[in-house]
Specification:
This protein has about 190 residues and is of the alpha+beta class. It has a single domain (about 5-194), classed as VC0467-like (3-Layer(aba) Sandwich), CATH 3.40.1740. Helix content is about 20%, strand content about 30%. It has five helices and nine strands; from the N terminus they run E-E-E-E-E-E-E-H-E-H-E-H-H-H. It has helices at about 110-120, 140-145, 160, 170-175, 180-185, and strands at about 20, 35-40, 45-50, 75, 80-90, 100, 105, 130-135, 150-155. Strands 1, 2, 3, 4, 5, 6, 7, 8 and 9 form a nine-stranded mixed sheet that branches. It is globular and about 50 Å long.
């Protein structure tokens, strides 16, 4: 299937709390066959999110103190500021400063209190996903990429972040979208092989 004929990719506008799925033939190694959750999207500040499908080859406790034995997954959130740590979680009420991304899913919050909650055993690793770096777009940049059919928009749910294995998330979401999207999971990564 020729990329120019893949008009089904032009699907909705991005918004904070949605998923972005890379189109099947995206060549950028940072985003090839990835799923990103947009934590923020607006006309003034642009877009900010995290890749959900690129697990880091490191343990959380190897990059930050105060998390010994807390086996929450660590991911590469994107190519921007990979020396920063971010987190999504389900414990918004326990963590002051958290921002609700969508019902039941929160971003950030007071890091010192998070460390205390971890050390006191008041939170569980499965309630968190940590990220080194993030994915970001200047105002209008993501919309331009949408015009180029680079991304597919899909409503996010906390289960996409915490319940589905990251390695299969891209395929699972496309299958859930059904129709022509479900067929995309069988597209070869290299369109020349199609």
């Amino acid at each position: 299937m020729d990329k120019a004929n893949v008009n089904i990719l032009k699907d909705k506008k991005p918004y904070g709390g949605c998923l972005l799925l890379a189109e099947p033939f995206m060549e950028d190694p940072n985003f090839k066959r990835t799923v990103i959750i947009l934590a923020q999207h607006n006309d003034e500040d642009g877009s900010f999110g995290f890749v959900l499908t690129r697990q880091a080859p490191l343990a959380l406790e190897s990059v930050v103190d105060g998390f010994e034995g807390f086996e929450a997954p660590l991911f590469i959130g994107g190519p921007v500021a990979i020396d920063t740590l971010h987190y999504l979680h389900t414990v918004g009420d326990l963590l002051p400063g958290s921002v609700e991304v969508l019902p039941g899913l929160y971003w950030g919050g007071n890091f010192e209190i998070l460390q205390e909650l971890v050390q006191e055993g008041k939170v569980k690793p499965e309630q968190f996903k940590f990220f080194l770096g993030y994915s970001g777009w200047d105002a209008g940049q993501l919309e331009e990429e949408m015009e180029d059919n680079s991304w597919i928009v899909h409503p996010a749910k906390p289960r996409y972040v915490f319940k589905i294995e990251s390695i299969s998330l891209w395929k699972k979401v496309l299958q859930e979208k059904g129709g022509d999207y479900a067929m995309m999971v069988n597209f070869p990564e290299n369109p020349i092989l199609n």
